[in-house]
């Protein structure tokens, strides 16, 4: 989760998020090189007192500053398009989770299991404990196995919502009457936090998302305990 004075992205908890962080750093380095070059040229022009009649027009430099940006854009576009296709790819899922947005809570259904569904509300501030996070923890967490491809199907029952987990690189709109799907895989065990990212009414800030990532054996035990 994000922390105080954190100036960078959250640590990636999925392969896609790690790739997004690499792409962010890659693009930032290109921007840094462009800014450095432009600042150097501007400083040189301001302080240089010499003039040259050969610099009044020059086809070579005009050709260079036309082609160079196109080449730079290719170096940005290629990894960007690759990531777009990877994010849209739905791999063979190990399980399917359905999320339904309501005002102002989430409902979850584990489609591969019989009658495994629950509502997830934010823990009220007066019930918070030392181990819980204000506005982020829920009474019923989503439990998912790590290192398994998960298909998430998202919809809404009333107004527009958005199911978002920043550390997974997942942000999917929940639209009434429509199903949106996304695929992700969690790299390691832990607790991941997110929130609704679409303004959906008065209590928009109070419908968090909490995922608990566990091993496959722990997930099977959790499902068995709910079925008893």
Automatic annotation (TrEMBL):
Annotated Gene Ontology cellular components are:
mitochondrial inner membrane
Give the domain of life.
Answer: Eukaryota
One of this protein's GO BP terms?
A: ATP synthesis coupled electron transport
A Gene Ontology molecular function term for this protein is: cytochrome-c oxidase activity
Membrane-crossing residue ranges in chain numbering: 27-47, 67-85
Q: What is its main location?
A: mitochondrion
Q: Which UniProt keywords apply?
A: Copper, Electron transport, Magnesium, Membrane, Metal-binding, Mitochondrion, Mitochondrion inner membrane, Respiratory chain, Translocase, Transmembrane, Transmembrane helix, Transport
Note the topology in the membrane. Multi-pass membrane protein
A Pfam family per the record: COX2
The UniProt record lists the Cytochrome oxidase subunit II copper A binding domain at: 92-225
Determine if GTP-binding is one of this entry's keywords: no
Q: What binding details are noted for the cofactor?
A: Binds a copper A center.
The UniProt entry, under NCBIfam families, shows: CoxB
Q: Which family does it belong to?
A: Belongs to the cytochrome c oxidase subunit 2 family.
Under the subunit heading, UniProt states: Component of the cytochrome c oxidase (complex IV, CIV), a multisubunit enzyme composed of a catalytic core of 3 subunits and several supernumerary subunits. The complex exists as a monomer or a dimer and forms supercomplexes (SCs) in the inner mitochondrial membrane with ubiquinol-cytochrome c oxidoreductase (cytochrome b-c1 complex, complex III, CIII).
Q: What is this protein called?
A: Cytochrome c oxidase subunit 2
User: Which organism does this sequence originate in?
Assistant: Reticulitermes chinensis
Q: Which gene encodes it?
A: COX2
